[in-house]
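Journal club prep — side note

Before the paper discussion, L.F. wants everyone to see what a predicted structure for a comparable chain looks like in token form. Sequence:
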Amino acid sequence: MDRRRARLKQLILAGVAVGLSACAVAPPEPSPTPPDFSALNWLRLDADPVGHMTRQPSTCLSAPKAAPIQRGALLFESPMLLGGQAAKAGLSCAACHRNGRGNPDFLFQGISGAPGTADVTHGLFSKVRADQVFNPVAIPDLATVDGQSRVDRDSPGTLEAFLNAQIVEEFSGTQPDPVVIEDLAAYLRALDIAVCNPSATEPQSWRQEVARIKAGLSTRGAASQSYINAMRAAVGRIYERLSDTRHSELRRRLIRFSRALEAGNSMDELRLTLSDIEQDLAAAESTSFYNPDVLATVWP
């Protein structure tokens, strides 16, 4: 009987030892590195960064799935479109006009006065329109009547001329190809507060980025470099949302895809690669920085 008790005690102690050993060799999952989002460069300090990075003004597009409008939205998000100091700083049209709307939390030191304002005649971006006066104005919501009234969208060629001048004169950018201006104009003309709830917000999503990249892949002929730059910028924004610990392989695949865009790989190859990435993004969504709960756990 004593031998049986002694043997049972040995087995119990052995089991405890094995359990402790298993715990010792199974380190906890590393915490994700806090993200460094480029969009936060223009955010006022007292704003909610998690809310800013996971919500956006509602989409107010009369034909949100039309290819020219999607391409225009893609270009609208690209800092390289503006060129000059804006491109170096990573500033795009969408930095001031989030999702084509407004941005009351926008704050650029030396360019903004109060949050949600910008001096559009500041010499930092261009000497052509610099007036040597600090006169920031409120950033308009481009879907509203007020935002639409800033330039005539109905007269043929008027909006196109305005956009061209904005890029070349206001931001010292390179003369854009006409097809670029056409797509941008299509996007702006589609912005209409009548087709959405103006006070509503919606989640920011990688799906919106992927849809725009797909639209960009439909035009690789004329002005291809402008679209390549814009697509690579979109890939970079997705990359920012993935943890370097949880999604390291998916991040590497995005880098390879971006390089393939720059290298001019075949359209079929690019579409196939993007389709595979799309599936992996769907699987990673709940643990990515698109998820506000995940983002809130790692914010410094």
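L.F.'s comment for the group: The chain is about 50% helix and 5% strand. Keep this in mind when we get to the figures.
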